[in-house]
Amino acid sequence: MQKLLKCLVVSLLALPAMVAAHGPSRLKVEKEIAVSAPAEKVWEVIKDFCAIDNWHPAVAKCEGAGGNKVGATRVLTLESPDSGKNIYEEMTAYDATNMKYKYKITKVDVKVLPVTTYAAEIRVMADGSGSKVIWKGGFYRGDTNNNPPPELNDDAAIKAITGVYEGGLAEIKKLAESQ
């Protein structure tokens, strides 16, 4: 009985330390934009997994394999091909009928995009006489230790993904409405 009581006391004393050391929480960003064009027209802009270089201002080039099938991959070059600023992604779901696809980042330097374990969905939906595009993702910050540097903390990750989504959505709107 004495041993059991000692174990219980030690466990209770260790509990606050274990709770404080649990690590980061999964972060989420969701952005949407209204587009004055039919959903089908907007879908035409984004439906090809590797067409992102046509509609995202930060992507200089996309090299892909596998088309629009689950398991398809793409490498996004953010500047010149020798800059080292590449993001590697894989499609995890594709649904042309519902105008959406999901993907995940398989490799990225956190100095380029300060996130880890990133997965996202982009979808087009009819909305009255126009449509809306919803882009949402979940991820962890670039440094998952308890005291990350400012450039790899929660705020940096949320700010970076928010910028990615807002820049892409604005260009989608511009392209769809001008066609």
In short:
This protein has 179 residues and is of the alpha+beta class.
What does this structure look like?
The structure is a single chain. 31% of the residues lie in helices and 35% in strands. With 179 residues, the chain is an alpha+beta fold. The chain has one domain: START domain (Alpha-D-Glucose-1,6-Bisphosphate, Chain A, domain 4, 2-Layer Sandwich), CATH 3.30.530. The protein has a seven-stranded antiparallel sheet. It is globular.
Protein topology:
Elements: H1 2-20, E1 27-35, H2 39-46, H3 52-55, E2 61-65, E3 73-77, E4 86-95, E5 100-108, E6 115-127, E7 130-141, H4 154-178
Antiparallel strand pairs: 1-7, 2-3, 3-4, 4-5, 5-6, 6-7
Task: Please state the overall shape, judged from the principal axes of the Cα atoms.
Answer: globular
What name goes with the CATH superfamily?
Answer: START domain
* Sequence stretches where pLDDT stays below 50 over 5 or more residues: none
List how many beta strands DSSP finds. 7
**Arithmetic mean of pLDDT:** 90
